[in-house]
Amino acid sequence: MKFVDEFREPELALRLVAQIRETATRRWVLMDVCGGQTHSLLRYGIEVALEDCVELIHGPGCPVCVTSCESIDFALQLAMQPHVIVASFGDMLRVPGSRESLLDVRARGGRVQMVYSPMDAVELARNHPDCQVVFFAVGFETTAPATALAALHAEQLGLDNFSMLVTHVRVLPAMEALLLSPVNRVQAFLAAGHVCAVTGFAEYDVLVDRFRVPVVVTGFEPIDLLQGILGAVQQLEAGGHCVSNCYARSVSREGNINAQKTVETVYEVADRDWRGFGSIRNGGLILRDRFERFDSEKRFATIQVNPISVVNTCLSSEVLSGQIKPPQCPYFGNACTPDSPLGAPMVSSEGACAAYFRYQWLQSK
Q: Fewest CB within 10 angstroms: 234, 239, 315, 330, which?
């Protein structure tokens, strides 16, 4: 089978595929909620290999993709202010706001600096005392500990020219929102292993009990994913529902307690607007009062972001909620490509549209 060409353990992969096929008596719908998993499922041909017995759909597993348009527009306006530098991870630079991206603003003279870690942004502020440095804090629970450490470090240094535009989002509330949707198709989740490495998986118990939906924690390697898919199918066939951990080498039930304490010191849970989803209850993090001097939205409260009504043909909401797959979008591969994207899922390295374009569309040409 062609899909095992790149596998480190091809015989095990074939056995797992055969086991999934033997177990499934119907075509089950499984959703992964991690962009890294999406890319692996497509890169290694797992989705195609199992398409007759398992439908794999891809959820909002890319934090760049779900960062609200309003937050991006605010960052764009900050970058055009005198003596302000917006520091951001590279993935955010090309993501469009309502009209343009950080790269577009930089081309017009805005001060935008790509950084590789939150601490880089702190150092940028130390090295530019005459400027206000705003770090665009994006990501799931995986990046929140690092940005929390940056806030603690800035506090220790007494920096008055460092702040953060916090747009951190939380995975579990998004999964709940998907299950509550009237168009929900998810019958089981493949949970994001790197998120659970921080949070643990005990918190999924309530979701599983409430919705009677299996949740299987899995990693990103093909064998990890196949084992996770098999575990989910076995539960579905047996009529069961529980949290299963197929990534025990990196994930424990309790998670990383030190990372959790760091996040809890700096942040508190709050409602958050998700691009394509609207407001999700408890869907994000905000800075606690102790750290409000590092809150760029309060520091630059006089900057008003006026919503701009634009006709957006991007179907990212339908893609990120698993209603359609990227190739089903009429703009995929023609009006929307990585060179001229209509939306964030085609821009981000973790976006579902970018994955389908790279591993299916290009290879079909």
A: 239
